[in-house]
Amino acid sequence: MVDKSHNKMKNYNYKKKILSKKNCVSVVGLGYVGLPLSLLLSKKDKVIGIDVDKKKVSTLNSNESYLERIDNSKIREFNNKKNIFCSDFSKLEDSDFIIICVPTPLKKNNTPDLSFIKNAISKIKPYLKKGQAIVLESTSYPGTTHDQIVKNLNKNFKVGEEIFVGFSSERIDPGRNDNKIKKIPKVVSGHSRHCLEIISKFYQKHFTKIFKADSIVIAEFSKLLENIYRSVNIGFVNEMKMIADKMGIDVFKIIEAANTKPYGFRRFFPGPGIGGHCIPIDPLYLNFAAKKFGYDSKFVKLSSDVNFKTTKFVADKVISFVNKNNIKFSSVKILFLGLAYKKNLDDYRESASLKLFDLLRKKGIKKMKFYDPHFKNGSVPKKVFLVKKLSPKSLFHYDLVILMTDHDCFDYKFINKNSKKIIDCRGKFSVSKKVIRG
Ligand SMILES: NC(=O)c1ccc[n+]([C@@H]2O[C@H](COP(=O)([O-])OP(=O)(O)OC[C@H]3O[C@@H](n4cnc5c(N)ncnc54)[C@H](O)[C@@H]3O)[C@@H](O)[C@H]2O)c1
Predict the structure, then answer these.
(1) What pLDDT, on the 0 to 100 scale, is given for residue 1?
(2) Fold agreement between 4-223 and 251-437
(3) 30 pocket-lining for ligand 1 (C-beta < 6 Å)
């Protein structure tokens, strides 16, 4: 017979151990999510940041940041306080909390690729011991934490009694420095009551506000709902743009008028298509999970389709410009303003600029360059040629300038004055003889 009072006493001791001192926390995956999280946690706890990418680790150990939005001084401060950046998973042994922030991309067939989570768990597992808590922060479909972590660890531990598991979504708003992660309410969840108690106490220490979800699947699903809400609304407004364009009406003027309604309307802006690690991917994660439950989600998938169609819409605008002006596809000179998928960011993952570039290249357009001060040569894909500086002469050299990303650092007046023709996908310029919407 199981001695319940003994078990109760055991996990009471674990809880006490975890919650009564300065904790040691390991963050696995030091990317756009894991690095800022490590810096935040290091304010109150000892942090071990682990990444398989040795180059990243070595950069961080040289007190250098590889993310534009994080100052070198913050990395130095982290290192000076005896925190650790490394690729050595055996360091996990000393951790009270292990937080997983590895990528969750799509496979070639657009289904979830959980290989990074699986790989991280297999590397973590040999160093796990009783009393530790593991939290997944990578975005995935409901059931992932249970299937990949709880089920896996249940073979060696009593999850919820000897080892504690939960999920907490990451809500970092890339490119917005005013929205410090500490102040973004944190959704937390746990496999059991004890797990939730331990994990929520931990996050409470670091975040201004936490929300305790009733279960892990609720927390996992809520992250997808938040991102699909954006995908659907962006898809919707992109479709409005394409309809308005057919009618010869400026969609940005329509939005401006609609936005005067004081209730029941929230403004979203159209663009050249979606990008980043979340909005293009998360609808497909939910779609995959819904199918397993026998539900073929039309609405969710439609938003992905419309958003992709939007990039094609911009490509068609370019092609029609080239044809109208009798320029050869092989000789037309195009400048993309913005490589990043979102304003004020040094992140080109799934960027609409790269998708448009590929669509145009397939049509035989070759003379395409990019201007984006958020990137340096070497930090961009090989096929991308970055222009370092814009002068009146260099701008006038291009037959067409396409505003893809509305970075604050662009001098829009200067661009408007010195370009021959602009396709504006962001509503930064007024429509004129020179400027058309894209
Ligand atoms: N970028 C965002 O703004 C954002 C926002 C919310 C949620 N998310 C989610 O957070 C997760 C991480 O995203 P990201 O943008 O930080 O990704 P990223 O690609 O920037 O960083 C992931 C890091 O994990 C490392 N890594 C991969 N496998 C590893 C392993 N087995 N062990 C240790 N390290 C490993 C990689 O080298 C990389 O440095 C994803 O699930 C993403 O959907 C991202």
Answers:
(1) 44
(2) yes
(3) yes
Q: Is the pLDDT of residue 436 over 90?
A: yes
Q: How far is CA 116 from CA 22, 106, 112, 286, 309, in A?
A: 29, 11, 11, 18, 30
* The token pair that represents 213 in the structure block: 């979800």
Mutate to test the pocket of ligand 1, among 27, 32, 37, 87 (most ligand atoms within 8 A of CB): 32
13 C-alpha to center of ligand 1: Å?
Answer: 33
Selecting among 24, 101, 195, 278, the annotated active-site residue is: 278
pLDDT at 8: 59
Let me know if domain 251-437 sits in CATH 3.10.20.30.
no
Q: What percent of the chain has pLDDT over 70?
A: 96
Please compute, for residue 125, the number of CA atoms within 13 A of its CA located in the half-sphere on the CB side: 17
Taking the centre of ligand 1 as the mean of its atom positions, its distance from the CA of residue 117, in whole angstroms, is 10
Query: What tens digit of pLDDT does each residue of 350-377 get?
Result: 999 999 999 999 999 999 999 999 998 8
> Alpha-carbon torsion 210, 211, 213, 214, what sign?
positive
For residue 86, indicate whether it is catalytic.
Answer: no
Q: Span 4-223: which CATH code?
A: 3.40.50.720
Q: At CA 321, angle to CA 353 and CA 247, rounded to 5?
A: 90
Query: Whole-model pTM?
Result: 0.92
- Cβ–Cβ under 8 Å, residues 391 and 355: no
Nearest CA to ligand 1 atom 43: 139
Q: Where are the domains of the chain?
A: 4-223, 251-437
* 63-105 pLDDT, tens digit each: 999 988 899 999 999 999 989 999 999 999 989 999 999 999 9
Distance (Å) from CA 124 to ligand 1 centroid: 16
Ligand 1 atom with the smallest distance to the CA of 50 is 33
